[in-house]
Design a protein that fits this description.
alpha+beta; six-stranded mixed beta sheet; rod-shaped
Length: 186
């Protein structure tokens, strides 16, 4: 199973921070024991244990830092491509995928937020080569047959795969929305 590329990887978790603090306390305790002249066997075992823990903690921190840095670079590249696609096409709009409601072989039922109009709507999106994840900001060319100024919003918006231009993770966290289309119709 692949991970959601929209979610920024965590760098520090409470367990990792707590383990690192306990490790530092153990190092301080070992230094105090060294100064007070503890037995060499106890110091040897303590040093070996601390070296093993240091290697493990160091590798975990380095892996998380690398994963976070790679995610940041990839997100920057996606936004660069997103901005290039926006400037190279005449009419575009941004939508944020709020949820993927149902997956089917030919496409998916999703709930989207039209960013410019702050309108939440259900949509059918044709199958795309890249998976669409909740939280993704999608750049697309709107279909004038479905959405036009002065006309009411359609019940369901159909997104063709050929209308999708780019996608990127959100620049800012998505705010908690109060109503979804099913609740607004009641």
């Amino acid at each position: 199973m692949s991970t959601n590329p929209v979610i920024r990887p965590k760098l520090a978790t409470p367990a990792l921070v707590l383990t690192s603090v306990v490790y530092l306390i153990a190092v301080a305790y070992l230094l105090v024991a060294l100064i007070r002249g503890a037995s060499p066997e106890i110091l040897m075992v303590g040093c070996l244990a601390l070296l093993v823990v240091a290697g493990t903690l160091g590798s975990i921190w380095l892996a998380r830092i690398r994963r976070r840095r790679k995610w940041m670079v990839d997100a920057g590249e996606k936004w660069h491509y997103f901005d290039d696609a926006r400037s190279s096409h005449r009419t575009t709009t941004e939508i944020t995928v709020l949820s993927v409601d149902a997956l089917e072989p030919t496409g998916s039922w999703i709930t989207v937020n039209w960013n410019r109009f702050d309108h939440i709507q259900r949509a059918w999106i044709e199958a795309t080569p890249d998976p669409i994840w909740p939280g993704s900001v999608v750049l697309m060319t709107p279909d004038p047959a479905q959405v036009s100024p002065g006309q009411p919003w359609p019940q369901t918006y159909y997104i063709r795969a050929s209308d999708l231009l780019a996608w990127a993770p959100p620049k800012h966290p998505v705010s908690r929305l109060r109503t979804f289309p099913e609740q607004a119709q009641r």
